[in-house]
Fold this protein.
Amino acid sequence: MRIDYRAEIKRLKEELDVTVVAHYYQRDEVFEMADITGDSLELARRCKADKNPWVVFAGVGFMGQSVKVIAPEKRVLMPKIACCAMARMIDGSYFDESVAYMVKHGIAKENILPITYINSDASVKAKVGEMGGMVCTSSNAYKIIEKGLESGKKILFVPDRCLGQNFANSMGLKSCVIGVGECDPKEADVICFNGFCSVHQLFTVEDVAFYRNKYPGIKIAVHPECDTSVVKIADFVGSTSQLIKYVNDLDPEQKVAVGTEYNLVHRMREKNTYVLSSTKPECPTMNETTLEDLYLTLKSIEDGNPINEIVVDPHTVKYANLALERMLAIK
Ligand code: 13P
Ligand code: SF4
């Protein structure tokens, strides 16, 4: 007998003390089933405030981990433990190597303030927390870097070199990327780890030129994970939520090409909105979660045998939480 996943998911949500959460990049059919949707900052904040003891999080691993870190009493399950490719580029030992690089180049450890993009493993967030550092998201990176600079220390920014460099540029700061050309930490304010998002690397200067030639007057709006060359020539740069607001607020006749994940752009206003790419820039791991996965995860709670539970050890929770709470405290 075929299972009607939608009907079963609705039934299970009514019967269980569970909140289903989905990031904006999820497939439409999964996204539509969620009680809470949003970008990574909104999801972290709203999960913490949510009353239900169970969270089923359709997203990538670091997002489920973040909920577990800020609300360890919750049971967090993921329909698919999908990994963000960028988050996988750095682990604790790469983080230590980056600190060692700065120390070797004359910056004492106590003069380094690490900031990690939320797209990182809890173990990296914990290392950052232990050093007095903070987490940031693409919505609040400007404020967090600004706050970090008040310490008078050098900022070590991990793992996304694009986010680090784009915000440094917008703040008039000097930045460099470890392992790329001459990166002298003494000469830079923001020293970036060499990580990136392969999805957002798909948007190019040529794509911008193509759309501007084809539709003179078109607006170009991109996510700060895009390459610095693209961000420099865009009309608007913003996180997922900021991009949605920007596009919604445009005159309906204003054309716009958006440089971010396909599922999200596809869900924006239909008319006069284009994906800034000749390819279909889907986040492969976000797309792994299916309705069947969501159903099976909820069913596992009903059956008393929960699957795909996120477990984070107490030491990691303690220090990753410090880094996340420092971010959440900055309005
Ligand atoms: P947001 O912080 O905008 O949700 O982005 C998360 C992400 O993974 C972007 O690629
Ligand atoms: Fe990670 Fe890029 Fe996917 Fe965002 S789009 S979750 S940064 S791989």
Summary: Residues 40 and 63 are 7 Å apart (CA to CA). The chain has three domains: 5-83+286-311, 87-196, 200-275. The mean pLDDT is 95.
